[in-house]
Amino acid sequence: MIARPTRVVSVGVLTCTLVLTGCSKETTASPPSVSSSSAADSTGSTSGSTSGSTSGASGSATIAEGDEVRGRSGGFTVVPPEGWTEATDKADGVADIDLVLLSSKKVDAFANNLVITASDGDQSVLDDELAKGRQQLVAAGRTVSSAPDKTVSGSTAVGFTTTFQQQGVKVLARSYGVTRDGRVYLLTLSSSQDDATHAMAEFDELLSTWTWT
Question: What is the set of domains in the chain, with CATH numbers?
Answer without folding.
Answer: 11-212 (3.40.1000.10)
